[in-house]
Design a protein that fits this description.
Number of strands: 11
Helix content: 25-40%
CATH class of the largest domain: Mainly Alpha
CATH superfamily of the largest domain: Transferase(Phosphotransferase) domain 1
Structural class: alpha+beta
Protein name: non-specific serine/threonine protein kinase
Organism: Phaeocystis antarctica
Largest sheet: 5 strands, antiparallel
CATH topology of the largest domain: Transferase(Phosphotransferase), domain 1
CATH architecture of the largest domain: Orthogonal Bundle
Strand content: 15-25%
Family: Belongs to the protein kinase superfamily.
EC number: 2.7.11.1
Keywords: ATP-binding, Kinase, Nucleotide-binding, Serine/threonine-protein kinase, Transferase
Number of domains: 2
Radius of gyration: 20 Å
Distance between the termini: 51 Å
Oligomer: single chain
């Protein structure tokens, strides 16, 4: 196969929390989103009674099935990171489309990114919001971990905004969706920590989907042991994110919480309207200097109402940011 040989993890390997997170026969319960019932995730060998299998709008054949790489017809490469690649795929049995994220186990080990993979799967399996990408299935073979995700053909919001920006009314529509999904995450003690247009996909309907939860922080938990508890022995890495959108506390490697996302949201709003993030410098170092000095300019013609919101979010002291007093 294209991704290596299909095999079950060994008993020794299953002691690893990363591999335990992708164990066969993990079955997740139904969850409700806006009063619509759907399956967030079904494990490899989960059995779904026929009365539960018919969920309106759901990919039908993926629920309760055992899948492997050969179950999919692999299409174009949608994106890639340091240790993973995402492909547009078609489930052969039904011709339904998915975004298949392929995580290279050897690279995860080499770059010490096991926590990121476990956290991403935990968030997607346990939380559900209309503006979050949906996870339907996970499985693995000898060399890779696989996440069958919702396919969003509209591409990244960044492509619509880069260097040109959006009309204010559309930016307000998108901004409201981002605020809603971030509020949901924060109420569930999850900080995304990499809010940027490259991590937001646009549906054909015009609605957004937030992706890439690998750098998320679970407030009140620590990374590193089991998937269900996310452990209690390691400290979270705080210096994470994308320089142009990182909060001052993240740059200073200080303990951060949901207020870091509020800062990133301010940068996100500027990029949507102006076409460029507010603190971008000629290098990461210069960008960091601008952030720590809170030195930025909004372009001429920037909507006053949006400017007021951005100014209230881009405040160096986290507790003084709009929404940061709680």
């Amino acid at each position: 196969g294209r991704f290596g040989h299909d095999c079950s993890p060994s008993a020794e390997g299953m002691a690893n929390p990363l591999l335990r997170a992708f164990a066969p026969a993990e079955v997740y319960a139904r969850r409700s989103v806006s009063n619509v019932q759907w399956h967030v995730l079904r494990g490899e060998a989960g059995v779904v009674p026929s009365s539960e299998a018919d969920v309106p709008g759901e990919p039908s054949a993926i629920i309760g099935r055992t899948l492997n790489p050969s179950s999919f017809e692999i299409g174009e490469l949608l994106g890639e990171g340091n240790y993973s690649m995402v492909y547009q795929t078609t489930l052969k049995s039904t011709q339904e489309q998915f975004a298949l994220k392929v995580v290279d186990k050897s690279k995860v080990k080499r770059y010490k990114k096991a926590d990121e993979v476990v956290v991403e799967k935990w968030v997607l399996a346990n939380l559900a919001h209309p503006s979050m990408i949906r996870l339907f299935h996970t499985f693995q073979d000898q060399g890779s971990l696989f996440l069958a995700l919702e396919y969003v053909p509209g591409g990244e919001l960044w492509a619509l905004t880069h260097k040109k920006g959006l009309r204010p009314s559309l930016a307000a529509f998108y901004g409201a969706q981002m605020l809603d999904v971030l509020q949901y995450l924060h109420e569930n003690d999850v900080v995304h920590r990499d809010v940027k247009p490259e991590n937001v996909l646009v549906q054909a309907s015009g609605h957004l989907k937030l992706i890439d939860f690998g750098t998320a922080k679970l407030v009140g938990r620590s990374p590193g042991s089991s998937e269900s508890s996310i452990g209690a022995k390691n400290k979270w890495k705080e210096f994470v994110g994308t320089p142009e959108y990182m909060s001052p506390e993240a740059i200073d490697n200080k303990d951060s919480d949901y207020r870091a996302d509020l800062w990133s949201l301010g940068c996100f709003l500027v990029q949507m309207i102006a076409g460029m993030p507010p603190f971008k410098g000629g290098s990461d170092y210069l960008t960091f200097k601008r952030v720590l000095a809170c030195k930025y300019r909004l372009p001429e013609g920037f909507p006053p109402v949006a400017a007021e919101l951005v100014t209230a979010l881009l405040v160096l002291t986290p507790t003084e940011r709009l929404g940061g007093a709680a």
